[in-house]
Sequence to fold (352 residues):
Amino acid sequence: MISKLGRYSIIEELGQGAMGNVYKALDPLIDRIVAIKTFNLNQNWDQDQHDREEYEARFYQEAKTAGRLSHVNIVTVYDVGKSENVAYMAMEFLQGRELRDILKTGQSMPLVQVLEIAEQVARGLSFAHENGVVHRDIKPSNIMVLDDGRVKITDFGIARIASSPVHTQAGMTLGSPQYMSPEQVQAQAIDQRSDIFSLGVVMYEMLTGQPPFTGEHVNAIMYQIMHAMPAPPSDFNPDVPKLLDAIVLKALAKKPGERHREARELAQDLSAETAAHRRVLRSAGENSAEGTAESLGMSAHINSDRSEMNFASATSESDLANDDPVVAQSRSFLLLGIILVALFGLLLAITI
Fold:
């Protein structure tokens, strides 16, 4: 492993890719931990020098694109440079997990978490679109969920900038097949609505645990994207409300004109749905608390009544058992006197 790139001291390797590696490094000038993404300019190219130049231009385009986008939901690029045969990009070091790793379980995610992640991605895309940038490769591996709950969009390597001199060849398809929009599949001109479609695919997968378009090979997947409309997410996850079904399926519309016009609109819809879901959860919690309190109140009332009855019974028994001895003796003398008077009266009657 290399020890330095420019002024950056390499700490450890974080990952490897087809074109280069990613490292954790230290910027000694300001004592800041950064992530370094590299591009190997000296690797063997299967075709010609043009390929190398194109990929190198794309690498610098990513740095330029992300560097001009300062937003809480987009990874921040600090620096770009070249050291011998390695081009590198220094960016903020993110502590968290790729959404791809979270989805590996194949299970649906909690509804609130899905809404929060999707809304943050939509807000990041909205900012990029407003600055003339279309990402073109929105997918779980390009979405980082940080430990503090924030979400960052990464990898603008194939982003399209309206003013960029770097262009792809006519008819060239770029992106990840499962998350491509229909217009990407057909290598047509795209705009911000292509990113909205890709985010719709990601939302569907978060809600159901499976992507909406599948197939045994790339062509089968592309056919599904072009012609198949997936079932509503609620068919696989009954916790998904119908309104969220509608939001996701609108993002997945085949025709760009039938989707949200802007990512900002999608973010607003998701924000409203998040608020509605939280109200439902809060209401359910309050009803549960009221039911518990009422149950406890009835139990206390019954126990109180029982206590009163037991107290009365105990008091009565106690009164009988605890008579004063003097009172008891007086009652005995009185009874004896009554008996003697009766006997005297009987003897007098016999004598007469």
Observations:
- The chain is about 50% helix and 15% strand.
- Confidence is low (pLDDT under 50) at residues 162-173, 311-323.
- The first helix runs from residue 49 to 67.
- The longest strand covers residues 8-16.
